[in-house]
């Protein structure tokens, strides 16, 4: 609510306090109100008193009604709550649109406290359209008390607008196939969001995730992977979780630990079906509990160690909540809850209590106080013991790169004119066009920059072999003698350039002898006052052609449909893409003054901060204004120490960043802890399929809120259904 209704002061001596609660019944579309009061002094019947009581009752009833709408439409990320939120607004509109827009009226009467049937007051509540559109609604409460009538009204604008996209995952897979990860390391969250059953993901060779993990499908684990639950990089006050919609199968060491103490809402592993272990698995550590939920458990192999509670609850189908514990060594530093039957074939130590709804086989093998073992128990499933919900689906993508390329709707895209100009002949510029202009060759830039975060600015000089100042095609027409060997290329975004769109010519293939270094400088001066993001951005787009047709929004899925997108293939070795503000802080003057060559390791003392809070001695990049948009059937292969600082939105493309990346990058967390990593990308990677190789890291930084990616999500199931209270009237 943007405004709060003003009411006259209550609780004066002799004033009767009425508390009214108006509730919309969602299914029957009825309106009811209950009114209670303390007492009525019938001797006070002067007109002023009667009017005051009528006003207080009408005002209280109206405010309660508005508060109920506010409760029903409170912002939420829960899919079930979203559906209820949508239904609340739809039903409010049904009330208002009834009787050709005259609305729905309900009368509420209340009698004297002595139980007599004589009526001392009536409130009429009306929900109606204001004008011709049901998007504008007026709620009126008119109360008559002992012959005096007062009326108040609230004027509401309902909203059903596309929710701005939120990007919380460092790597997000959109496709309906499984995947294998070899030495993948993620700082931030990771997800596989396509809710297709039967997919299998595999972790091998020390894969690690420092954040949350959500996947639809099953996970097979081997060769010592690690999930370290850390505070959210989106909101440091939130914790982290692991959610696997189907099965978890551990055939070799698997560690799920945490850097924070357990609290309600985080530090848990939630498995939708069965947990099976045939080798070592540990969950949580002393002082850092991690609870585990599943619908069937078969614990075997060498050992299982957990700090936290272990829950086995019934699930859909054949999952009866049964558990078998047969590992050579198994300890639960917490309590065990089993909704089915418990079978213990090897010694099981439980420091808390054991609660089993069914029967226990092998009770003598449970190392626990006998009084703490409860067979035939009733499980509360409340509070900490409530199984977290696995969302029916993740946030769906509605618009695809093809929409950004071809749509004429300015509410969807800002770059279609620049994209289509490549195909209608109005933009034939390439990188080589700028190389033909001496003002853009061997370009030197000196700028005052606050390098220390103290506000004191010092001049920083950086040099580039080539400068790009407007949209163009990156084609294979540059001279290798001039622009091979790691040439530094500056892309200069400004108010005059607007969004710079760089089309990658289909088939662009640059070997390690090229190894270009792209630096994107954004100095557009129009700033989003909410996020601080600059209005214009730099886009690297696939050469998907102009034959793309947009076939509208699918009525079932709520997603945009398209056809005619040309397949593209790209191969880069040693390509590095930096944001300018990071680049000039990451490297010292000896690197910045070169126009060619591999920039090498970041300078000593540079610390990258991907968290949502400032950390002393570190640099926290702003939301990335570098966006890679790859259309359907595009494949990117980047190898040989390639590095990308930017966000990939490629939900129907293949992104293979099989590279050791940038070496020696120091990354901090919100507590000031540091890691030195080989880094492949700083941003978010959204792809149909993702491939990686070598022990390298991917670090979270979200895309600019002014980029077209902000329009990608939303629509049918992700709209923000709410309202604005425009004004409050007393007639």
User: Uncertain regions: pLDDT < 50 for 5+ in a row?
Assistant: 1-45, 715-721
Number of helices: 8
Structural class estimated from helices and strands: mainly beta
Proportion of helical residues: 10-25%
Characteristic key phrases:
731 residues, mainly beta, 19-stranded parallel β-sheet, 19-stranded mixed β-sheet, 11% helix
Would you spell out the secondary-structure blueprint of this structure?
Layout: E1 18-25, E2 30-37, H1 47-72, H2 79-97, E3 104-111, E4 119-129, E5 136-145, E6 148-162, E7 169-173, E8 179-182, E9 184-187, E10 189-192, E11 200-204, E12 208-210, E13 213-215, E14 218-221, E15 226-229, E16 241-244, E17 248-250, E18 254-258, E19 268-271, E20 274-277, E21 281-283, E22 291-294, E23 296-299, E24 303-307, E25 310-312, E26 323-325, E27 329-333, E28 336-338, E29 342-344, E30 348-350, E31 354-356, E32 360-361, E33 366-367, E34 373-375, H3 401-406, H4 416-421, H5 431-435, E35 441-449, E36 458-468, E37 472-474, H6 480-483, E38 488-493, E39 500-504, E40 509-510, E41 517-522, E42 538-542, E43 549-553, E44 560-563, E45 568-573, E46 576-579, H7 580-586, H8 589-592, E47 607-608, E48 626-629, E49 634-639, E50 643-645, E51 647-657, E52 662-668, E53 674-683, E54 685-692, E55 696-700, E56 719-730
Parallel strand pairs: 7-10, 7-54, 8-11, 9-12, 9-55, 10-13, 11-14, 12-15, 13-16, 14-17, 15-18, 16-19, 17-20, 18-21, 19-22, 20-23, 21-24, 22-25, 23-26, 24-27, 25-28, 26-29, 27-30, 28-31, 29-32, 30-33, 31-34, 36-38, 37-39, 38-41, 39-42, 40-45, 41-46, 42-48, 45-49, 46-50, 47-52, 48-51, 49-51, 50-53, ...
Antiparallel strand pairs: 1-2, 3-4, 4-5, 5-6, 6-56, 35-36, 43-44, 52-53
């Amino acid at each position: 609510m943007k405004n709060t209704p003003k009411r006259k002061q209550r609780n004066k001596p002799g004033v009767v306090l009425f508390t009214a609660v108006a509730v919309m019944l969602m299914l029957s579309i009825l309106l009811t109100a209950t009114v209670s009061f303390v007492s009525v002094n019938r001797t006070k019947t002067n007109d002023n008193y009667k009017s005051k009581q009528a006003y207080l009752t009408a005002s209280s009833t109206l405010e309660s009604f508005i508060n109920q709408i506010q409760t029903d439409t409170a912002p939420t990320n829960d899919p079930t709550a979203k559906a209820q939120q949508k239904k609340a607004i739809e039903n409010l509109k049904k009330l208002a649109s009834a009787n050709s827009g005259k609305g729905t009226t309900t009368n509420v009467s209340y009698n004297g406290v002595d139980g007599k049937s004589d009526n001392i007051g009536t409130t009429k509540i009306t929900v109606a359209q204001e004008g011709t559109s049901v998007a504008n609604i007026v709620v009126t409460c008119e109360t008559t008390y002992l012959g005096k009538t007062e009326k108040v009204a609230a004027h509401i604008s309902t909203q059903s607008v596309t929710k701005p996209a939120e990007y919380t995952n460092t790597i997000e897979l959109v496709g309906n196939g499984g995947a294998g990860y070899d030495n993948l390391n993620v700082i931030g969250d990771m997800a596989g969001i396509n809710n297709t059953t039967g997919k299998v993901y595999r972790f091998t060779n020390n894969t690690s995730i420092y954040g949350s993990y959500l996947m639809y499908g099953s996970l097979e684990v081997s060769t010592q992977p690690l999930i370290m639950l850390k505070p959210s990089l989106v909101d440091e006050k939130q914790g982290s979780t692991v959610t696997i919609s189907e099965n978890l199968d551990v055939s070799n060491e698997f560690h799920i630990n945490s850097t924070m103490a357990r609290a309600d809402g985080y530090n848990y592993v939630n498995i939708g079906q069965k947990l099976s272990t045939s080798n070592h698995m540990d969950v949580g550590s002393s002082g850092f509990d991690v609870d585990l939920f599943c619908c069937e458990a078969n614990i075997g192999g060498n050992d299982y160690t957990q700090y936290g509670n272990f829950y086995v609850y019934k699930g859909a189908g054949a999952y009866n909540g049964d558990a078998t514990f047969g590992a050579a060594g198994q300890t639960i530093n917490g309590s065990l809850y089993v909704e089915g039957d418990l079978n213990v074939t090897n010694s099981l130590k439980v420091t808390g209590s054991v609660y089993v709804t069914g029967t226990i086989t092998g009770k003598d093998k449970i190392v626990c106080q006998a009084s703490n073992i409860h067979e035939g128990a009733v499980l509360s499933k409340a509070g900490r013991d409530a199984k977290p919900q696995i969302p029916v689906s993740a946030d769906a993508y509605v618009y695809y790169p093809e929409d950004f390329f071809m749509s004429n709707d300015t509410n969807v895209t800002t770059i279609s004119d620049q994209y289509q100009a490549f195909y209608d002949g109005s933009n034939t510029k390439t990188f080589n066009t700028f190389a033909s202009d001496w003002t853009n060759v061997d370009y030197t830039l000196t700028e005052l920059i606050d390098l220390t975060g103290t506000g004191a600015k010092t001049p920083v000089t950086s040099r580039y072999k080539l400068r790009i100042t407007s949209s163009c095609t990156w084609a294979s027409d540059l001279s290798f003698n001039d622009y091979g060997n790691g040439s530094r290329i500056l892309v200069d975004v400004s108010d005059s350039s607007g969004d710079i769109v760089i089309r990658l010519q289909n088939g662009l293939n640059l070997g390690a002898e090229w190894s270009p270094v792209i630096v994107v400088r954004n100095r557009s001066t129009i700033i989003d006052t909410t996020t601080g993001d600059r209005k214009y951005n730099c886009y690297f787009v696939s050469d998907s052609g102009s034959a793309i047709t947009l076939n509208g929004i699918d009525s079932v899925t709520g997603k945009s449909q398209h056809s005619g997108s040309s397949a593209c293939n790209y191969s880069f070795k040693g390509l590095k893409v930096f944001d300018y503000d990071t680049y000039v802080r990451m490297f010292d003057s000896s690197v910045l003054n070169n126009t060619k060559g591999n920039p090498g390791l970041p300078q000593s003392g540079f610390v990258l901060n991907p968290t949502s809070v400032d950390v002393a001695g570190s640099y926290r990049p702003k939301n990335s204004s570098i966006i890679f948009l790859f259309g359907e059937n595009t494949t990117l292969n980047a190898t040989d120490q390639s590095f990308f600082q930017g966000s990939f939105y490629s939900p129907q493309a293949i992104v293979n960043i099989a590279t050791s990346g940038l070496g020696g990058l120091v990354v901090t967390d919100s507590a000031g802890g540091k890691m030195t990593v080989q880094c492949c990308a700083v941003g978010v990677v959204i792809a149909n399929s993702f491939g990686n190789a070598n022990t390298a890291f991917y670090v979270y930084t979200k895309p600019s809120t002014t980029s077209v990616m902000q329009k990608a999500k939303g629509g049918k199931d992700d709209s923000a259904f709410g309202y604005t209270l425009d004004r409050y009237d007393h007639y």
